Amino acid sequence: MNPPAIQIENLVKRYAPAKGATGEAAEGKLALNGVSFDVPEGSIFGLLGPNGAGKSTLINILAGLVNKTGGKANIWGFDIDTQRRNASRAIGIVPQEIVFDPFFTPYEVLENQAGFYGIAAALRRSEELLAAVRLADKRNAYARTLSGGMKRRLLVAKAMVHSPPILVLDEPTAGVDVELRRQLWELVGELNREGVTVVLTTHYLEEAEELCDRIAIINHGELIANKPTRDLVDMAREKIVAVTVSDDLTAAPAHDAFTKVDQTATRGVEITYNKDKFSAGQVLAILQEQGLTVEDVTTREADLEDVFVQLTSAEE
Ligand code: ADP
Ligand code: MG
Q1: Is the shortest distance between the CB of 55 and ligand 1 below 6 Å?
Q2: What's the rounded Cα separation, in Å, for the pair 258 and 295?
């Protein structure tokens, strides 16, 4: 097996406190609290977590835009502290925020970036990259006239100018419509098939599920899972049925079929069960056997939030 494309070890980031901050805020925000994981070479790796989890902080540390407080990281075997230039050359980053000089054309954006990396004119790939991101016909349009989706595609091309073996996309589909999202994923898939290791951050479980071979989840600056997508999806095989019964509950119902039971009100209870093994009908039948009269029922699939709850409670 090849060494990992990216290795992150015990990464810590505490942002400086705002001036005059008091109490807890005076210590500054602890955005990453000792995060470690490897990104396997050749994978599409998803870094998943809710807003504020620390995803961009981690990406921006890799990009050299944010200084870490502690820990280590290497990119393609290059230490980001001691071999920054080589580390930067091995990675292309599509930032969460779209920023362009509005008066450059897509072609100029790519040429300027190639110049920044000192790539000789004969070795530049501007035309090829514009074609790859389906912007050849916008070659000479001002960046400000491009749609949001086009701008994001241009950012992907810009990130690939120096042909890095690793491409990182920070929330690439925020504010992108369904069709453009599909195009973007096709492009990412194409690059990956050509051998590029891809890291993307998202707060959509479905998106990560669809694209990534492996998913790491961070929450409040801590890694709470890092598994092959299939294993993680299996954890979301749960369904929840919320039931209102006609009499006050003296005790929460219990049964082997129930993964979890939450009494939510004097007459309300939420029961989690594995949808591969049981049906909502069976859950209701069990409740009736236990002498409860069900008045109202709603069911829902377990979502990322539930997986979080499951993972964080499993940790304790
Ligand atoms: P994500 O990308 O997962 O949404 P971020 O990495 O942007 O999360 O933010 C993680 C936490 O760090 C949040 O609480 C955010 O408010 C805080 N944070 C981000 N950037 C800064 C900054 N420059 N100064 C202070 N706090 C910040
Ligand atoms: Mg972010």
Answers
A1: yes
A2: 19
Nearest Cα to 158, choosing from 208, 104, 213, 77? 104
SS3 state at 178 = helix
Q: Which of 148, 7, 133 is nearest to 78 (CA)?
A: 7
Nearest CA residue ID for atom 27, ligand 1: 15
Interstrand relation of 166-170 and 91-94 (parallel, antiparallel or unpaired): parallel
Six-digit token pair at 187? Answer: 């492009």
Indicate the burial class of 85 (C-beta count within 10 angstroms; 0-12, 13-18, 19 or more). Answer: exposed
Higher pLDDT, 132 or 107: 107
Residue closest to 128 by CA, chosen among 160, 152, 105, 103: 160
Cα 108 to averaged position of ligand 2 atoms, centre (Å): 28
Nearest to 148 by CA among 170, 173, 131: 173
Pairing of strands 294-301, 238-245: antiparallel
Does the structure show a pLDDT above 60 at 316? no
Nearest CA to ligand 1 atom 7: 56
Tokens of 36: 């470690």
Give the ranges where the chain is alpha helix by DSSP (H). 55-63, 84-89, 106-116, 126-132, 148-159, 178-193, 205-211, 229-235, 280-289, 304-315
Q: What is the pLDDT of residue 209?
A: 84
Q: Which of 196, 226, 200 shows the shortest CA–CA distance to 211?
A: 200
Nearest CA to ligand 1 atom 24: 15
pLDDT at 304: 59
**Residue 315 confidence (pLDDT):** 46
> Structure pTM?
0.80
Q: How far apart are CA 211 and CA 45, in angstroms?
A: 8
